[in-house]
Amino acid sequence: MTTLSMNRWPRFWRRFVGGLCAATLLLQMGCYTFKPLQTGVPATGQRIAVVLNDRGRGLVGDRLGSAIDKVDGLLVEGDGASVTLEVYRTMDLRGNAATWTGERVQFPRDGITGYQERQFSKRRTYLLVGTVVGVIAATALAVKFDLFSGFIRDDPGSGGSTGDSR
Question: Which residue has the higher pLDDT, 28 or 87?
């Protein structure tokens, strides 16, 4: 007698491990937030976000795309006239994000509304870790109580009868 659950276990475990990997990536992204900087240009080598105004969107629109609101990256150079970032992510006015691979882009100072600093968020981290631990615990309980077992069916060759037919 075979069960459907025996055929589903490898697929279940692949999905489970894939889900854990996705949750780990989410943890890495979700543990940080951007806070407005009260000072001028931050120190070189710091991970920041640059908030653009209409003039800035127009000046870098051909390189980054139109309607860009915020650009996240590593500050390479900052002087009185411009700021240069290695761009890692852009956010448009509608909230859509695009990932970049560190291309250097120069932003004119008069096209920048403000700067935001990337900071570690304890609250977000606790929330995400709690969620992942809860999912793992729920999955472990489901496996222990055999909630993934499925239906039991007869072997195809058995004919469905176990007694003699005299």
Answer: 87
Whether 156 maps to a domain, the answer reads: no
The helix (H) or strand (E) run that includes residue 159 is none
What pTM was computed for the model? 0.57
β pairing state of 112-120 and 47-52? antiparallel
> What span, in angstroms and rounded, lies between the C-alpha atoms of 61 and 90?
12
- DSSP assigned state of 148: T
Length of the chain: 166
Task: Write down the residue that tokens 């007694």 correspond to.
Answer: 163
Q: Is residue 106 part of a domain?
A: yes
In a domain, 72, yes or no: yes
Residue in the block written with tokens 């509304």? 113
For residue 31, give the amino acid letter: C
| CATH code, domain carrying 77 | 2.30.30.100
The 10s digit of each residue's pLDDT in 49-59 is 999 999 999 99
Instruction: Report the candidate in 34, 38, 40, 90 with the shortest Cα–Cα distance to residue 66.
Output: 90
DSSP annotation of 158 reads S
Token pair listed for 164: 């003699």
Q: What is the pLDDT of residues 16-43, one digit of tens each?
A: 777 777 766 666 666 777 777 666 777 7
Q: Which helix (H) or strand (E) holds 76?
A: strand 68-78
